[in-house]
Amino acid sequence: MKDYKQFDGLGLAELIQKREVKPEEVREMAIREIEQKNGKLNAVINKIYDHPQEGDFVQSQGIFAGVPVLTKDISQELKGHPISSGSKVLANFIADHDSEFVRQIRDAGVSIIGQTNVPEFALMGVTEPAYYGPSRNPWNTDYTPGGSSGGSAAAVASGMVPIAGANDGGGSIRIPAAFCGLFGLKPTRGRTPIGPNRGRVWQGASVDHILSRSVRDSAAMLDQYRYDRASAFIAPPFNGSYLTASETPISSPLKIAFTTNSPIGTKVDHECKEAVHKTMKLLESMGHHIIEKEAPIDGKKLASSYMMLYFAEVASTLTALEDVLGRKVEFKDVEPATWILGLLGKAVSAEELLTSLTFWDKAAIQMESFHDTYDLYITPTTANPPLRIGELDQTPFEKMLIRIVGGLRLGGILKKSGFVDQLANKSLEKTPFTQLANLTGQPAMTLPMHITKDGLPCGIQVMARRGREDLLLQLAGQLENTESWINVKENPIY
């Protein structure tokens, strides 16, 4: 099968259904692509085809029957296989069950052939774990594919597989999709499966879905998810077909608000602004009403609220590790930055965390009112095009500070020093736009609408009211058929 990479997931499934190609042939082509490219990209850290388990080859009659897929090395457990969450401390931990997400995509017919690289505990917007090493961007291997689903993005953008599992707690689907020229949708909170042993991840901020080259693959997979009784949240019902929505043009003009201003007041690169302005002109030419207007949310307070969650969740993760390890977690067990985040989390009070969660609800209500007037809200996906590998590494002073504070467990003092605000700005200045949808629970997508002068992709983000993935997919389907949509097959490693 010489033209494997020319097909998206649904296209491969159709060939298999028509018996024009065998599932085994498609699988072998995917494995060949991984073997040829993974040395350069470091996208896949666990090759299941090297150590197959019972059930790995099971095919169903689902819409994606026989389509090779990779899953993400966090929260997407595969029974009998490692699930390390990007950390050396869990490198030998073997999952004793399939996650509900994995169960449901398997029911859709996919053939899972490996797991993709993530930053430690999926904490960064770049994928550069100390244990596994950095994943690299197929458009230019000196640059990051983003994070935390960076391995998945690199795999899909390079043509290894048409679909890969991802999740998004602060932009981890949309950021790597933007950096790699892919389509990435973060669904409404409660739309996708999360069990069986957890009811929420990051207090509902994080949801699972996929990264894909085509809009229709993302839409078709969204159609496959069923009610998950473990989930603490239930999304507004949708009785139609997302796949049909992605293939149905928008018939009436939309009222669309947009901004290119960072919600935390930091710099936005001119290329990211240009991506939005070009798309606004295109949408206006299609008959939509365009208004420049920022969302009615206090961006700095939102960032602070997000960081409180960030710290508390890392502290909780490190505490939970004690049950797995049978001992206390030590400084040497995890990356220094992870340890510091955990110390800060232990210094967060119950009052502070509850206040932050209350702000989420307030922001969600404000955005619901905003969408009474505006159908969609558009921003850059990120404030910068893809970053160079290592660009976000700590400075020598920061590394020294981390060693001192980490060794003395001075998280409370660090929190009072103003370090938290500095950390929030540094962590989010490159990616300040994506967290809003996670905290409000709204659906948001990134669209590949611009290539920089350096030949790197740059995405735009589109948000809609909770429950309106169908509207997002309608717009994406229309824009995918325009000349402005970036063809990922043009990257050097495809």
From TrEMBL:
Q: Which domain of life is it from?
A: Bacteria
List the SUPFAM superfamilies hit by this protein, alphabetically.
Amidase signature (AS) enzymes (SSF75304)
Q: Which GO terms describe its molecular function?
A: catalytic activity
Known InterPro entries for this protein? Amidase (IPR000120), Amidase_CS (IPR020556), Amidase_dom (IPR023631), AS_sf (IPR036928)
Report the residue ranges that make up the Amidase domain in this protein: 59-473
PANTHER family associated with the record = GLUTAMYL-TRNA(GLN) AMIDOTRANSFERASE SUBUNIT A, MITOCHONDRIAL, TRANSAMIDASE
What family is this?
Belongs to the amidase family.
The protein in question is named: Amidase
Q: Which organism is it from?
A: Lederbergia citri
